[in-house]
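Example for tutorial group B:
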């Protein structure tokens, strides 16, 4: 599973490096889908999206976040 996650991340990173727009990765969600998020705020966007999806305690979330962004 980790290999597939890493491969997916590489695809997203290539697309972003090419300057393309990816819904929910460098845009808002729903009605804000056409709003492009500044590069400097992308990590915050993803962290907040995961917090909305996962109803974990803060300690559990921090462990999951570190594993998710691990390179």
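The residue assignment follows.
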């Amino acid at each position: 599973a980790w290999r597939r996650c890493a491969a997916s991340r590489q695809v997203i990173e290539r697309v972003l490096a090419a300057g393309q727009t990816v819904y929910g990765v460098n845009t808002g969600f729903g009605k804000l889908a056409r709003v492009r998020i500044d590069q400097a705020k992308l990590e915050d966007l993803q962290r907040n999206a995961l917090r909305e999806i996962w109803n974990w305690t803060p300690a559990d979330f921090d462990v999951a976040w570190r594993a998710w962004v691990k390179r």
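The mean pLDDT is 84. Compare this with the pattern of hydrophobic and polar residues in the output above.
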